[in-house]
Amino acid sequence: MDLPRISVVTPSFNQASFLEQTILSVLGQCYPNLEYIVMDGGSSDGSAEIIARYRSQLAYSQSQRDGGQAAAINAGFARATGDILCWLNSDDFFLPGALHRVAKGLAGSASKAALVYGSCLFFREGANASAKILTARSFNAERLRATAYIVQPSAFWTRELWEKTGPLDETLSYAFDWDWFIRASQYADFVPYAEMFAAYRRHDAHKSGQGGEARRAELLAVAQRHGSDRVRRLYEFASEQWPSVTAWTRRRRTMESWHFPAAGAAARLTVPALWRLPAGVVTADLHTARAMLEGV
Predict the structure, then answer these.
(1) Tag placement on the chain: N or C end, fewer CB within 10 Å?
(2) What pLDDT digit, counting tens, does each position of 63-94 carry?
(3) What single DSSP character describes residue 44?
(4) Main-chain phi, psi angles of 228, to 5 degrees
(5) What DSSP character marks residue 198?
(6) pLDDT per residue over 208-241, tens digit each?
(7) Residue 75 DSSP class
């Protein structure tokens, strides 16, 4: 069987600490019909030298100033010729066999709008190091409009879906993947796989963890753009009451460490701003919005 061409784009900026591991995880797939593109935004930390070591195995690479992460990914896909597309950030990496498994899953849909997503190893580095498996949940387009439950490094799609959906929104810096997945879900039902395809790394300089208020504003904008009335009310409320939401979260975690019964409900009683939730919103929804806005 002829394997479909897979185009992988890696955007990077000052990620020399992780970049080589990312590159090796792609090349180490030993996938015979691979097109690998690395788009570096003009790093000053030695990334260009790392890229140069592997240039002979890359379809294209550059190291120059760009318009940001989404613009770099769009530019990479504009050069890509693959039947299957994905991007892999330079602090994440593929797990062995991922591309062969994805090719098998999408081989019959290469000319159609289709997307598959797998489970993902999520791990934190640093003082609070930890690891867990983010299991791929069943696809639900409405749930996707409420929370970004598809883990981006483990998602792969066909060229047809990319062309129908259009490029990433370059006005977004933190939420462009969530926005794109929501838009793409109009054209295809996504297919989950239990296998782990990638590892998602959190570290001290991780972009999502450093976004703060700007990141929360973008997530709110995407929720307002695509979500139902209930979802919009949820994110608007959580954003407006963010100090109270974070206070509730701290108290809930403390109570949970004490094995306090119904810790979430009990902690909420100590935060008057959260006593009355918007119409149709329940405490579980607030947990969802908090996790999204906090970047965990």
Answers:
(1) N
(2) 999 999 999 999 999 999 999 999 999 999 99
(3) S
(4) -70, 175
(5) E
(6) 455 689 999 999 999 999 999 999 999 999 999 9
(7) H
CB 155 within 8 A of CB 120: no
CATH number given to 6-209 = 3.90.550.10
Q: What integer pLDDT is reported at residue 107 of this predicted model?
A: 87
Does the predicted TM-score (pTM) go above 0.85? yes
End-to-end CA distance of the chain: 41
CA angle 146, 150, 151 (to 5 degrees): 130
Residue 37 near residue 79, CB atoms below 8 Å: yes
Which part of the chain has CATH 3.90.550.10?
6-209
Q: How many helices (H) and strands (E) does the chain have?
A: 13, 9
CB 16 within 8 A of CB 47: yes
The pLDDT value recorded for residue 267 is: 95
| Phi-psi map region of 102: left, alpha, beta (phi>0 left; psi -120 to 50 alpha) | alpha
Q: The tokens of 45 are what?
A: 């930390």
